[in-house]
Amino acid sequence: MTVKQILDQKGRNVVTVNPTMGTEEAVRFLSDNKIGAVVVTGTGGKIAGILSERDIVRAVASKGAAALSSPISAIMTSKVTTCGEDHSINQVMELMTNGRFRHLPVEKDGALIGIISIGDVVRRRIEDVEREAEEIKAYIAG
User: Fold this and answer.
1) Rounded CA separation 113/84 (Å)
2) Which of 68, 70, 71, 119 is the 20 to 30 A CA-CA neighbour of 61?
3) Which domain holds residue 43?
4) CATH no. for residue 108?
């Protein structure tokens, strides 16, 4: 299974925010949208960073409540790993595991076209394993 297949099933809608958004506003945004991370886009819709719950926790741990009054550009992860639609489930699992992150923006020709989470990847991998098990059972029975 590939990232394209995940996006075809899940959808390609990605909510994004501007790097000037305040951290307190971003916290509400994540909560209101029931998401754990949001892609931060700059000029021309290019990925400028990603803001995750983990980024917020680290900022609050180091700066206290004052972190909430800073723009998200001050606390976001600006070096963002991305993948393409042709990446396999195993490839993105490896990227996420090695990078220790749970959200991976998907780009095509430099444009943001989707985002996948570790939950999306695990769900599809479980489906693959269950399908393979059924095929083996059918082969053995037949």
Assistant:
1) 9
2) 119
3) 3-141
4) 3.10.580.10
Please give the residue that has the higher pLDDT: either 50 or 1.
50
Q: How many helices (H) and strands (E) does the chain have?
A: 5, 5
CA–CA separation, 48 and 46 (whole Å): 6
Separation of alpha carbons 18 and 109, rounded Å: 21
Task: Please tell me the distance from the alpha carbon of residue 34 to that of residue 13, in angstroms, as a whole number.
Answer: 14
In whole angstroms, give the CA distance from residue 120 to residue 7.
9
Query: pLDDT band at 142, cuts 50/70/90?
Result: confident
From 96, 95, 92, 81, select the one nearest 124 (Cα to Cα): 92
Confidence band for 110, pLDDT divided at 50, 70 and 90: confident
- Residue pair 78/42 in contact (Cβ under 8 Å)? The answer is no
**Number of domains composing the chain:** 1
